[in-house]
Write a structure and sequence with these properties.
It holds the Pfam family PTR2. This protein is mainly alpha-helical and about 500 residues long. The protein is about 75% helix and about 0% strand. Helix 5 packs antiparallel against helix 6, helix 5 runs antiparallel to helix 11 and helix 12 runs antiparallel to helix 15.
């Protein structure tokens, strides 16, 4: 699971004097609860989505080609991170963080209801768009509101974010298990229904505790958009959406291109954000130097996420068609394996945090950590090679545990480290924009995981072997290049290491 927490703008009001929830404000319990159920629904859906799209109609699916289904999965994941930037903009300019969070949670619930109740492509289209936009809005605003529950210098802040992050991972752990169990029992729509019910529980809990626990946190619109610009912005969004819909309806664009399109949009947004900051008069020479040093780190992160997020594309197919999922005499649904990563995150996130704290100034630099992350995730590709071309149930279940263990170790070397790096490298005038740029690395990489998955052919041993060797070769080469560049990156970062 991607660890995408960062601490938003802090409130100057010392709202955190009450010690009620493990010594923290009750708002922490409220936000952790709604985010836990949002992550439950999000990862529960992710664990079913590919199968729902490519399973035959007789088996309860939509009967798509595998390559098209995996492209949609990658595009959907990339869109979530794209819309997180849009959600942050809406929070800063129009609604406020708290209201954006509230309406985003409603959108997520509506999306899951659509998937559960509406048949065929109608339910998929409405459902995925609502969930992507809603999850993107929740992703940043929930953390901004949480940050404003505490005074800027409150010593409990880090502990509060740790509790929050634990809730996120508990939801990510339970989601795939429960939705897959319901799929195996009654079909896909019961799994989607469970996600809708849990999101509804989180939303009701949030509404009931909203006034008492959130109070004024996140209610301020940081940089209000003049009301005279509301209509032009609305019309602009309408035109962009209309153009995309028109291109698909007329056949100019096809659904199997969705991941490529999402990747191009994410790349365009990233380039715009970087150039806009680099050319700004508000940015100092030192800050420009750091922005230059950030480029190879951004590219490394894109490469990492393009492999890591294949757990929802290539690994989904692999778990379905190759993995021996019989455990203690019972065959597990294929999507259950998506719970392994959040389980390892819960077990090892604290270990890594303690390690970096203990090492202090002796810990590896950002460049070295990223290079190690790429090397570790590259090695996972080699684990697939002995089983290339195997039949059904040919890969032992413990192999997927080893792969996900290495995935998690690589994630912990890069994801929380990258979050911290982005906040430290941010020009003083653009703290939010810099984090948005970092989010684009996740969006671009996730979309590419769908594009790359279209090249994966499990029916041919040689093609499968070539695919995993290519993934290994490119990624290990990038790891070595980043390791060679680490001293240059350090010089560009100046005093941020």
């Amino acid at each position: 699971m991607h660890s995408d927490t960062h601490q938003g703008v802090q409130s100057p009001e010392p709202q955190a004097k009450e010690r009620q929830f493990f010594g923290h404000p009750w708002g922490l319990a409220n936000l952790s609860g709604v985010e836990m159920w949002e992550r439950f629904s999000f990862y529960g859906l992710q664990a079913l989505l590919a199968y729902y799209l490519y399973y035959s109609v007789a088996d309860g699916g939509l009967g798509m080609k595998e390559s098209t289904a995996l492209s949609i999965v990658g595009a959907y994941g990339g869109l979530v991170y794209l819309t997180s930037v849009a959600g942050a903009w809406v929070a800063d300019r129009i609604l406020s963080a708290e209201r954006t969070l509230f309406y985003s949670a409603i959108l997520v619930m509506c999306g899951h209801i659509s998937l559960a109740l509406l048949p065929g492509f109608t339910g998929v289209t409405i459902g995925l768009v609502c969930i992507a936009v809603g999850s993107g809005g929740l992703k940043t605003t929930s953390q901004v509101v949480l940050g404003q529950l505490y005074d800027r210098e409150d010593p409990r802040r880090d502990g509060g974010f740790s509790i929050y992050y634990m809730g996120v991972n508990i939801g990510a752990l339970l989601g795939p298990i429960i939705t897959n169990a319901l799929w195996g029992w009654q079909g896909f729509h019961w799994g989607f229904g469970a996600a809708a019910v849990m999101m509804a529980i989180g939303l009701v809990q949030y509404i009931l505790m909203r006034k008492q626990t959130i109070k004024d946190a996140g209610h301020e619109v940081a940089n209000p958009l003049p009301k005279s610009k509301y209509l032009p912005v609305f019309l602009g969004v309408l035109v962009v959406v209309g153009v995309f819909v028109g291109l698909f309806v007329t056949g100019v664009l096809h659904v199997n291109q969705l991941s490529n399109i999402t990747a191009l949009v994410a790349l365009g947004v990233a380039v715009f954000l970087w150039i806009d900051m680099y050319r700004s008069d508000k940015v100092t020479d030192d800050e420009r130097s750091r922005l230059l040093g950030f480029i190879p780190m951004f590219l490394a992160a894109v490469a990492f996420w393009s492999l890591f997020q294949q757990q929802f594309t290539v690994l989904a197919v692999y778990s379905d068609q190759r993995l021996n999922r019989t455990v203690f005499g019972h065959e597990l649904p294929p999507g259950v394996v998506q719970s392994i990563n959040p389980l390892f995150i819960i077990l090892f996130a604290g270990v890594f945090a303690s390690l970096w704290t203990k090492l202090g100034k002796r810990q590896p630099t950002y460049g070295t950590k990223f290079a190690l992350a790429l090397a570790v995730i590259a090695l996972t590709m080699l684990i697939f090679l002995p089983y290339a071309g195997g039949g059904a149930n040919s890969t032992p279940f413990f192999v997927i545990f080893v792969i996900f263990f290495l995935f998690t170790m690589a994630e912990l070397l890069l994801s929380p480290v990258g979050n911290s790096m982005a906040t430290r490298l941010a020009p003083q005038a653009f703290p939010t924009r810099m984090f948005a740029l970092w989010m684009m690395s996740v969006s671009l990489g996730t979309a590419l995981s769908g594009s790359l998955a279209q090249l994966y052919d499990p029916t041919s041993a040689s093609a499968e072997r070539t695919y995993f060797l290519a993934m290994f070769g490119v990624t290990i080469a990038l790891s070595l290049m980043l390791f060679v560049l680490r001293k240059w990156i350090n010089r560009k970062f100046i005093d941020v290491h």
